[in-house]
Amino acid sequence: MKYIAMxxxxxxxxxxVWAQDQQPDPPTMSVSAxxxxxxxxxxxxxxxxxxxxxxxxxxxxxxxxxRMQRVMAALKDLGISEERIQTISFDVTxxxxxxxxxxxxxxxxxxxxxxxxxxARNSLKVEVRDLDTVGAVVxxxxxxxxxxxxxxxxxxxxxxxxxxxxxxxxxxxxKAKARTLAQALNVRLVQLQTVQEGxxxxxxxxxxxxxxxxxxxxAADSSVPMSPGELKIEAQVTxxxxxxxxxxxxxxx
Length: 253
Known about the structure:
Blueprint: H1 2-21, E1 28-39, E2 43-54, H2 57-77, E3 85-96, E4 115-128, H3 134-144, E5 148-155, H4 160-185, E6 187-197, E7 206-207, H5 212-219, E8 231-245
Antiparallel strand pairs: 1-8, 2-4, 2-5, 3-4, 5-7, 6-8
């Protein structure tokens, strides 16, 4: 009987522990908010390129190199340092003759395609910190040899301090939203369980010109109007609160 009683006690204890482990999780409430800070950009990223084509591989590459050298020299004359001029791509591709037409029932001739010539493309990314010279940078690049203009991207060099301001703003909004919801739903905010930071979102307005490259090539001076506008740096915060039924609301720190 003694052993039976001990076995029953162990069984009851295990049952209690199992029942405690199966208790439902407390109800929660999740809120999210976004903060945003607007500021003027301090940097422009200009993308220009040189494209050359011809029958000879060596001639195409040589012409492309010479034109790009003139472009880079013009950029340096405008005060753009070498470390702010970056080659982002360079490629040479062959141009093939179209395949000959084949008559019905004519066997397929497995011959290598004929190369008619080559096209070389060289693209630059130019970081311009003096925004008053952006028009001159684009104009001089097009005037001295560039024949491809892929637009302008406005940005800021150090966005981290501004992002922290947006993050604090988002946290404050999320906290206010949680308190408002708790009061409206007649629940109590017991404790803050988790805080999740969302990704930063920085819309970067671009100015792209479909036909403007021809106009800017003719102008080729700093009189070309450039308006950087404003950037908006955003951050998101998500708060998860444990809640319970209540007649009032707890002011959490």
